[in-house]
Amino acid sequence: MKTRKIKNLLRIGNTKHIVITLFKLRYNLPDRVLEILVNVDHVTISRAITRMVIYMNHIIKSTNNNYYVVDSTTIRIGRGKTKKDYSDYKHYYGLKYQVICDNNKEIISVSQGYESSLHDKKLFLIEYLKFIH
Questions:
Q1: DSSP, res 133
Q2: What is the per-residue pLDDT for 6?
Q3: Half-sphere exposure of 117 toward its Cβ, with a 13 Å CA cutoff?
Q4: Do the beta carbons of residue 129 and residue 109 sit within 8 Å?
Q5: Distance between CA atoms of residues 7 and 101, nearest Å
Q6: What are the residue boundaries of the structural domains of the chain, listed by start?
Q7: Which of 13, 72, 85, 117 has the fewest CB atoms nearer than 10 Å to its CB?
């Protein structure tokens, strides 16, 4: 049984492994949808993604370069002064902060508070120029 699983993974080829993994990571498509798109069984897709992510993680850890994780979070506050403090996504008033951590799990930067209606990407673009300097 185990050799059949390995043969199925080898049959789809490295290029499809990479394409399937990138689609999964970028679009977060269910395995059943990927099954239709690339004509590969969903169980094989799941195994291919797991193996490729483990391999990519190994490559990242083997390099001595620093990498950063950027995330934003919304802190709930009382009723804000402006409508921009209201987050339609969270359904409450808040302030949004961006936090940057490095590969050693240390916090590198915390942004100032922004209105919670601001999209994460716009917040990143605003703070990116400050972080580069």
A1: -
A2: 47
A3: 8
A4: no
A5: 40
A6: 2-62, 68-132
A7: 13
What value does the mean pLDDT take over residues 61-87? Answer: 75
> Residue 11: what pLDDT?
66
pTM: predicted TM-score of the whole model, two decimal places: 0.50
Mean pLDDT of 2-21: 66
* Share in percent of the chain as helix, strand, coil (round to 5): 55, 20, 25
Number of other residues whose CB lies within 10 A of the CB of residue 4? 8
Position 20: which residue type?
I
Q: Give me the torsion for CA of 62, 52, 24, 104, rounded to 10°.
A: -20
Strand ranges inside 26-131, DSSP E: 68-76, 86-87, 92-102, 107-110, 114-115
Q: Could you give the angle at which helices 2-27 and 42-62 cross, rounded to 10 degrees? A: 70
CA distance 133 to 127: 10
Task: Work out the number of other CB atoms within 10 angstroms of the CB of residue 129.
Answer: 8
